[in-house]
Amino acid sequence: MSDLQLRPAPVVCGGRDGVAGGPVHELLPPRRVPLGESTVVRRLLPGLGRRMVGAWCFVDHYGPDDIAGEPGMQVPPHPHIGLQTVSWLHDGEVLHRDSVGSLQTVRPRELGLMTSGRAISHSEESPRRHAPILHGAQLWVALPDEHRHVPPAFEHHAGLPVVTGGTGVEATVILGELDGAASPGTSYTPIVGADLALADGAAARLPVEPDFEYAALTMSGTVEIDGERVEPGSMLYLGCGRDELPLRAVDGAAGLVLLGGEPFAEKLVMWWNFVARTGEEIAQARHDWTDGDRFGEVRGYDGAPVPAPPLPGTPLKPRGRAR
């Protein structure tokens, strides 16, 4: 998915200075951002107070939106470097096309994982015949320095491991490992992403890694996370230092996405759809996209690619987890 803001601000992130060494409760409110022709998302990362959670560097939550009789998601071809995108749906479908030739419809609880590596471009759209409701999350993972120039690739995994955390609690492992179950998706850092479904009144104590930092995004319903009520569309940053995470559904069934990982030590600069280490790399990527080099062609999308926004007037420099 693309950051389609006309004047995106540079974001400096990474490093360990801003990592909470112990358990915390830090509610991350969303900001509403238009995406494409007809979709508005709630952006939770990066934000003013928190830039990353492990290697997770971007979180958008959208829906549930009634798109019956509407075009739904329409995100034209756009470029990426230095990251992986994770497409995750609770309702609806997204048709993915990219410049390595992938054409794949991603459906609820299926993993669409794109590794940009050195360069890729892709588009995302609701199919012409689509379900009436669209609801999901778009997530980015920063690639570590030794892997950020890998060849671009796309993976689709329809069958993901599911673990139970007590009566009425199921966890689908999206990426990384949870409670001994491992996702088939390729990951390059110690990481976890899991979708948790809680029946009405269900409670569990989920095993987690003390060395990981965590955050939980409530997708639907109200969830009590470590005693803190979190409403849909909000994310609770939890810090490090836990070996289990108490969860409870409040007032009906609920769903959430748990994100975690080893704190990302490298300092990064992120601008528009690019994750890099220097402003010069960002400027070169923008130049290459504008000139039609390096990113390839997305075939089959009915529309023009997204033009690159102008670079900001100030230098882009990585400065770690500025807060």
Q: What's the gist of this structure?
A:
Residues 47-141 form the Pirin N-terminal domain. This protein is mainly β and 323 residues long.
Structural write-up:
- The chain has 323 residues and is mainly beta.
- The chain has a single domain, classed as Sandwich (Jelly Rolls).
- Helix content is 4%, strand content 49%.
- The chain has one helix at 279-291; strands at 11-14, 23-28, 31-35, 39-45, 56-66, 74-80, 83-91, 94-98, 103-106, 111-115, 120-125, 133-142, 153-157, 162-164, 169-178, 181-182, 191-198, 203-207, 213-225, 228-230, 235-239, 244-261, 267-271, 274-276.
- Strands 2, 14, 15, 16, 17, 18, 19, 20, 21 and 22 form a ten-stranded antiparallel sheet that branches.
Secondary structure layout plus pairing:
Elements: E1 11-14, E2 23-28, E3 31-35, E4 39-45, E5 56-66, E6 74-80, E7 83-91, E8 94-98, E9 103-106, E10 111-115, E11 120-125, E12 133-142, E13 153-157, E14 162-164, E15 169-178, E16 181-182, E17 191-198, E18 203-207, E19 213-225, E20 228-230, E21 235-239, E22 244-261, E23 267-271, E24 274-276, H1 279-291
Antiparallel strand pairs: 1-23, 2-21, 3-4, 4-5, 5-12, 6-11, 7-10, 7-12, 8-9, 8-11, 10-13, 14-15, 15-16, 15-17, 17-22, 18-22, 19-20, 19-21, 19-22, 23-24
Family: Belongs to the pirin family.
Domain Pirin C-terminal: 194-294
Domain Pirin N-terminal: 47-141
